[in-house]
Design brief:
Elements: H1 3-7, E1 18-23, E2 32-37, E3 45-55, H2 57-64, E4 81-88, E5 100-103, E6 106-108, H3 114-117, E7 128-129, E8 141-145, E9 150-151, H4 158-178, E10 185-189, H5 195-204, E11 208-213, H6 216-224, E12 229-232, H7 238-244, E13 248-253, H8 258-266, E14 268-276, H9 289-294, E15 298-301, H10 307-318, E16 326-330, H11 334-342, E17 349-353
Parallel strand pairs: 10-11, 10-13, 11-12, 13-14, 14-15, 16-17
Antiparallel strand pairs: 1-2, 3-4, 3-8, 3-17, 4-5, 5-9, 6-7
This protein binds zinc ion (2 copies).
């Protein structure tokens, strides 16, 4: 340990003994804003004063206990937390006090398994997830593992950085996994927090975009972001409409309904790729074997993104290549915000201010 390490302050003066956070106590109840006591940091952990924290559909599924693997209440949701490092636990060298960091879904991984060392840390079996298996960003403070936060570059607004931390990186990775190349037709199913970013990343990769949604306002947003074609799935069959464009080279399934996944599958041209991203509470869809074989279809799952992916996402944003559509609300309105997302009353992303 060098002299500078010894001298470096490990805690900012202002970290309080308790702070407010939105807590899930029961899957059937609304969240409550509680005073949460400050816990001592373990080796490798940091305390972050949260500036902004996005509301992802995953947080809503977590709060409802919708999925086969459930979180254990009480817990604090949130995996789009962005804030300032205000306390360093023992042995932290990766970040310094005062730095702005993002705290993504992949809150911790082992760092040594085959997945971790081959650039697939998102598949690590030892992983811990912010806002799910460990407390997340819906609070005035959050605890994170220094190795798994990502620094937010200068010049990025924390309220933009928050949605990029899940919605951004997840769709960025999905476009990478899809293998989009110049002139490919990319069908984006679901224009919300994720979809509005997917439309932009597909174009950055050189793709041309057809966007599908049930709401005209969302399709208008898709066109503003560069989608050349839009399909309202309430008015016409998206699979047929996209087939008329020649069929999609890749379809990105971002809407939380198995029917939408089936439409995305049906929209593909021969040799096309369907990327599963959304996680509907209803877990199954019908996938025809015969057509999948004869048409040479690829179906692939894509789960969030790595720290490297998130750094690239931030770099693109800092370079002015992406726009984040979001609205800021106080964390105290977390339940109303969840209602609005579930009712489709939100243009893209809600970001909480604690
Ligand atoms: Zn998310
Ligand atoms: Zn691992």
């Amino acid at each position: 340990m060098s002299a500078t390490d010894v001298e470096r302050p490990r805690v900012a003066m202002r970290v309080p003994k308790a702070y407010r956070a939105a807590v899930v106590h029961d899957f059937k109840d609304r969240l409550t804003i509680d005073e949460v006591p400050r816990q001592p940091l373990e080796p490798g952990q940091i305390r972050v004063r949260v500036e902004a924290s996005g509301l992802c559909h995953t947080d809503i599924h977590a709060a409802h206990g919708d999925w086969p693997v459930k979180p254990a209440p009480p817990f604090v949701p949130g995996h789009e937390g962005v804030g300032i490092v205000e306390e360093l636990g023992p042995a932290v060298t990766e970040v310094a006090l005062g730095e702005r960091v993002a705290m993504p879904w992949l809150g911790y991984a082992c760092g040594t398994c085959d997945y971790c060392v081959s650039g697939w840390e998102t598949l690590c079996l030892e992983q811990k997830n912010m806002g799910y298996s460990i407390d997340g960003g819906f609070g005035e403070y959050a605890t994170a593992y220094a190795r798994y936060v990502v620094k937010v570059p200068e010049g990025i607004d924390p309220f933009d950085a928050a949605p990029l931390t899940c919605a951004g990186v997840t769709t960025y990775k999905a476009i990478k996994v899809a293998g989009t190349r110049p002139s490919d037709l990319v069908a984006v199913f679901g224009v919300g927090g994720l979809g509005h970013m997917a439309i932009q990343y597909a174009q950055i990769a050189g793709g041309r975009v057809v966007a599908v949604d049930l709401l005209d306002e969302k399709l208008e947003l898709a066109r503003e972001l560069g989608a050349e074609w839009t399909v309202n799935a309430r008015e016409e069959d998206p699979a047929e409409a996209i087939k008329q464009l020649g069929g999609a080279d890749q379809a990105i399934a971002l809407a939380v309904s198995p029917a939408s996944f089936e439409q995305a599958y049906g929209s593909l041209r021969r040799g096309g790729t369907l990327v599963f991203v959304a996680l509907p509470a209803e877990n199954h869809m019908t996938l025809p074997i015969f057509e999948t074989v004869l048409n040479g279809i690829t179906v692939v799952g894509s789960i969030v993104g790595t720290r490297t992916d998130l750094r690239e996402v931030f770099d693109l944003h800092a370079a002015g290549k992406t726009h984040v559509i979001r609205e800021v609300r106080p964390l105290a309105e977390v339940n109303e915000a969840i209602d609005d997302v579930e009712a489709g009353r939100v243009a893209a992303r809600i970001v909480f201010e604690p």
